[in-house]
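queue> pop job 88
queue> type: inverse folding (structure -> sequence)
queue> payload:
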């Protein structure tokens, strides 16, 4: 097992295969949530009979924004988390970041989807998402610096 300050980087399993652990676990809750958000947009489009754009429909516009916001932030967060894991981040930290990301995205979706908007849910969801991205980026940066400057 290779070690750095953040924990184990790579574990050699008994069969000799390299294992990076939690990357598949991280994607599991985000994929169904993305599909659910997509289905909500499709349903609103069908109801409003709007093939492109929002057609001035507030419900459709809100659902589109929730879906687009998810698509903008989640892939980047997952990529940073996978990189942090490959650089040796503690497994508990990766799980905590994953749970926080999903909770943040659910909170944001709840806040933006409602009319009138529940701003506290929207703000807390974005705060959680940006915190996950910031922590994952910091772990990547610190791990990379340690790798570069370690003897």
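queue> result:
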């Amino acid at each position: 097992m290779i070690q750095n300050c953040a924990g184990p980087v790579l574990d050699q399993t008994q069969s000799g295969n390299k294992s990076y652990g939690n990357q598949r676990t991280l994607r599991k809750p985000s994929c169904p949530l993305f599909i659910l958000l997509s289905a909500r947009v499709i349903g609103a489009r069908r109801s409003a009979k709007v093939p492109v754009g929002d057609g001035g429909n507030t419900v459709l516009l809100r659902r589109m924004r929730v879906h687009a916001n998810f698509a903008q932030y989640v892939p980047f967060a997952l990529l940073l988390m996978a990189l942090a894991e490959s650089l040796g981040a503690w497994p508990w930290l990766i799980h905590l970041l994953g749970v926080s990301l999903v909770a943040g995205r659910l909170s944001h979706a709840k806040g933006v989807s409602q009319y009138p908007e529940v701003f506290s849910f929207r703000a807390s969801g974005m705060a959680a998402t940006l915190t996950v991205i910031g922590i994952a980026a910091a772990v990547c940066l610190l791990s990379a610096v340690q790798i570069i400057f370690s003897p």
